[in-house]
From TrEMBL:
It comes from the Bacteria. It holds the Pfam family Pyr_redox_3. This is Cation diffusion facilitator CzcD-associated flavoprotein CzcO.
Length: 484
């Protein structure tokens, strides 16, 4: 039997393995469904792919990288950092590639998890950490005629690097975080780019720059200087909670800054009108880009705001009856975020199935533990999504809590640890009460919410608040079963 089984080899899974090893827990296996590590940064290789959080903050505090080439690094450099983690902390021997988990069942008499893969392998583990991530499975929109298109179809998270866009007519469906990065790159090579927008987003400039050589040398020579920059970036992003999470005077200020940026970059009044959001900033993900608006105004780019009626064999037909004929459709339509289900079947105590319990919206205790599913932990689980700060800050807090729980169980001789149902229920009542006062729940439709309007995604507070709650493990909140 394995001590700890980790599902996923992205930032979350690798970070958990690193911290477990540091705590003296080294009987670890990491299951990865693909042949390489990296999670979302392995999968998202579309032109222009980059992080909208500064690199010195989008990295682990316990593994700083003094060699970031830019303020906001691209996907390949971030993936390189992930590979550096594997090498530096000797994680390669722990990883089992090409293992797609399809079932996880808690064996009550043995107090262990039985995890089965599509390849037929079965693993028995005392503890399981789900680190598969929320941005793992690409989502195609429910559009009529999607399969009738005879041209080329690409999803931004499964980019086809063999397809030559030179001289092609390209449609881009979606104007979210991935779209605003790839559209400027497509405009450079395609004959024509037609962008289909459902809802305009709030846009802020991304203050990117190339890191000078002296900067890297300084960080190597004096790591506290890089740490000081990280702290400054952290507190700068923390302050944005007053703009993005709650409706405050700072919200109005940032909206005015975004509007001024739109007016600066887009001179055409009609196009500005089409690009002006009608919801409170923060309700949907804020877009960080300085190249999107200029790309839309290039002679070979056109913005379409009519709703899509159907996909036709030769292109896309919009509601007013016009068919836009294209050679390729790029879907920048995001991911199937697990707000009301699970990535595979998870069976807990008494045969309870987690997907059924989460049918109306996912819930957990402190985002990591679920009552009725002992010894199971999640990274970036329900209500841990950041709206203003680095996801890795939240991950570090969760990993610390999970490692603390597992280390305590080993030290105290507990064979199973299960959060009490009343504790989980009280926590989620509090979370939903706080969410009701946030911009995310202010009325706009976003991927943060289920179709019924339940927010199982975001954390309604500061990253500092989240870290504080995760630093406090209370054994009294759990039902424990001893080995003896």
């Amino acid at each position: 039997m394995i001590d700890v089984l980790i599902i996923g080899s992205g930032f979350g899974g690798l970070g958990a393995a690193i911290r477990l090893k540091a705590a003296g827990i080294d009987d670890i296996v990491i299951l990865e469904r693909f042949g390489k590590v990296g999670g979302t940064w392995r999968d998202n290789t579309y032109p222009g792919a980059a992080c909208d959080i500064p690199s010195n903050l989008y990295s682990y505090s316990f593994a700083p990288n003094p060699n970031w080439s830019r303020a906001y690094s691209g996907s390949q450099e971030i993936l390189g950092y992930v590979h550096h983690l594997v090498e530096r902390y000797a994680l390669a021997p722990l990883i089992r590639f090409n293992h797609t988990v399809v079932d996880a069942r808690f064996d009550e008499p043995a107090a262990q998890w039985v995890v089965t893969t599509a390849e037929g392998a079965v693993f028995h583990a005392r503890h399981v950490i789900m680190a598969s991530g929320g941005l793992a499975n690409p989502s195609f929109p429910a559009i009529n005629g999607l399969d009738s298109f005879t041209g080329h179809k690409i999803h931004s998270a499964r980019w086809d690097h063999d397809y030559d866009f030179t001289g092609k007519r390209v449609a881009v469906v979606g104007t979210g975080a991935s779209a605003v990065q790839l559209i400027p790159e497509l405009v450079k090579v395609a004959d024509k780019v037609t962008v289909f927008q459902r809802t305009p987003g709030w846009v802020l400039p991304r203050m990117d720059y190339r890191a000078p050589g002296w900067n890297k040398r300084l960080f190597k020579l004096l790591p506290p200087v890089q740490n000081a920059l990280r702290r400054a970036l952290y507190w700068g992003h923390e302050s944005m909670a007053f703009s993005f999470i709650w409706n405050t005077p700072m919200t109005r200020l940032v909206e005015r800054l975004s509007t001024a940026f739109l007016h600066q970059q887009v001179k055409d009044k009609w196009l500005r009108r089409q690009l002006t959001p009608d919801f409170t900033i923060g309700c949907k993900r804020v877009l960080m880009t300085s190249t999107y608006y200029p790309a839309l105004q290039q002679p070979n780019c056109k913005l379409i705001t009519w709703p899509i009626a159907t996909v036709a064999p030769q292109g896309i037909r919009t509601a007013e009856g016009i068919e836009h004929q294209v050679d390729c459709i790029v879907f920048a339509t995001g991911f199937e975020v697990s707000k009301a289900g699970t990535p595979f079947k998870i069976t807990g105590i008494g045969g309870r199935v987690l997907a059924e319990e989460w049918a109306r919206g996912a819930q957990a205790y402190k985002s990591v533990n679920i009552s009725g599913y002992p010894n199971l932990s999640m990274i970036l689980g329900p209500n841990s999504g950041p709206g203003h700060n680095s996801a890795l800050v939240y991950m570090e807090s969760q990993i610390g809590y999970i490692v603390n729980t597992i280390a305590t169980a080993r030290r105290e001789g507990w064979r199973s640890v299960d959060v009490k149902p009343e504790v989980q229920a009280a926590y989620n009542v509090s979370i939903q009460r706080r969410l009701a006062k946030t911009n995310w729940n202010s009325g706009c439709k976003s991927w943060y919410l289920t179709d019924a309007g339940f927010n199982a995604t975001m954390y309604p507070g500061f990253a500092t608040q989240y870290a504080r709650q995760m630093a406090d493990f209370k054994a009294a909140h759990y039902r424990v079963e001893s080995l003896s």
